Prior knowledge:
The structure is a single chain. Helix 3 packs across helix 4 (49-55) and helix 7 packs across helix 10. The protein is built from eleven helices and no strands. It has helices at 3-6, 9-31, 38-45, 49-55, 59-84, 88-105, 107-121, 124-147, 150-153, 158-178, 183-198. The chain folds into two domains: 7-57, Arc Repressor Mutant, subunit A (Orthogonal Bundle), CATH 1.10.10; 59-198, Tetracycline Repressor, domain 2, CATH 1.10.357.10.
Amino acid sequence: xxxxxxxxxxxxxxxxxxxxxxxxxxxxxxxxxxxxxxxxxxxxxxxxxxxxxxxxxxxxxxxxxxxxxxxxxxxxxxxxxxxxxxxxxxxxxxxxxxxxxxxxxxxxxxxxxxxxxxxxxxxxxxxxxxxxxxxxxxxxxxxxxxxxxxxxxxxxxxxxxxxxxxxxxxxxxxxxxxxxxxxxxxxxxxxxxxxxxxxx
Length: 200
């Protein structure tokens, strides 16, 4: 009996879903959200278009599932930075280095996210769903900053400060698409200036 035949229906469904997520991410990153179709994702994954619709009713549903999985991966990393940091300064520097890595190494993903972000901003339901995932990241960042002593160190509210840091990172993500060589270092300097300017 083949391995596929031995799998339960739930296991086969999850295997199909994961294959679609993998194929969708590869095509979205390579070609962009708007240029990628569910037909092409189905073909890439080796399934019919009906199999895609059974798991993801729309292309946006598939993208948001991919983004949610990315958030699931990033949150433990953020928490680990906070757990290892002995001060808010150490935590801030660890986060800055991680964001600089994204600026250097993840241009294609950043371009895709920006494309979907603009698309979602014009569609209330998608905007709310994207914002819910963004809130998960922001909450993890704020929680780790508080654990690292942010409330004792900062002049401003920890959530407002970390929201400003995230906004700065998003802005430099745009800059990195045009000036990839300069953006990471500039982001690092700007983030440090923001941090020291917000200290008590």
